[in-house]
Amino acid sequence: MNQTDIPSVLVTGATGRIGRVVIDQLLDAGVPVRALTHRSEMAATLPAKVEVFTGDLTVPETLDPALNGAGAVFLVWTAPPQTAAAVVERLAAHVRRVVFLSSPHQTPHPFFQQPNPMAVLHADIERLIAATGLETTIIRPGMLASNSLAWWAPAIRAGEVVRWPHGAAETAPVDDRDIAAVAARTLYQDGYVGGDYVLTGPESLTQAAQVDVIGDALGHRIAFEEMTPDEFRRLSEGTAPGLVVDMLLAAWSAAVGQPAYVTTAVADILGTAPRTFRQWAADHATAFTEGS
Known about the structure:
This is NAD(P)H-binding protein. Helices cover about 40% and strands about 15% of the residues. The chain is built from eleven helices and eleven strands. It has helices at about 20-30, 65, 85-95, 115-130, 145-155, 175-190, 205-220, 230-235, 240-255, 265-270, 275-285; strands at about 10, 35, 50-55, 70-75, 95-100, 135-140, 160-165, 170, 195-200, 205, 225. Helix 3 links the parallel strand 4 and strand 5 (about 95-100). Helix 1 crosses helix 6, helix 7 (about 205-220) crosses helix 11 and helix 8 (about 230-235) runs antiparallel to helix 9. The longest helix has 14 residues, at about 115-130.
């Protein structure tokens, strides 16, 4: 089959942590890719083979040029909820398949059952998509390994102690590259319509143990010190919404004392084992010393 016979895939969130890697995965598979960006100058950050469109989820009509002639969409919702229904309506009018990056809000593990405004939004979008009859796949990453860059890299770069709440909380960090590979596979291969996949890394690790793993990758010990939830709230003021901070603290608190939820979905879909957090840390060691 020639590439011209393969319908284009539109990637929203194209310059984000997951979307950018989805683009590479699709190109490697010979799939024509379209990218949706907020600003035209972002085209310079994407591969030359990608057809770039400027559009905004908050202005649904701006999506039409990117959707015309596309076969599938990787939907990453990065906007307020008000336009979700209009966006989904436009997707249904133009494409056949949608892969939605959601969250594990249906997962029966205490870590994922805390009040979470993003999970409420994801559930609403899932209902909107289901009502259209689109061929749909839902992927639900757990804790992303790359979150540790935002959380702990500043202290590590400065040679300071990593201070964090609920160090005993266990999660199963999943590599962004594995999430992207699953998304790409479900976008261009048959057999995944109707699929609903919770994606995790292969092992349960406390947050303190994850810091130790990063230290191993850097070749030196990183000291870890427990921070109280109240101190975390104070230090997070102005950098993260209070609802998000409360959600994280509740989730970590609920995860203390029990293993993280671990699935085999990445291996089931890709045929290869998911990357461990140790692999991720080794591959991103320089980001903890020099920045990304």
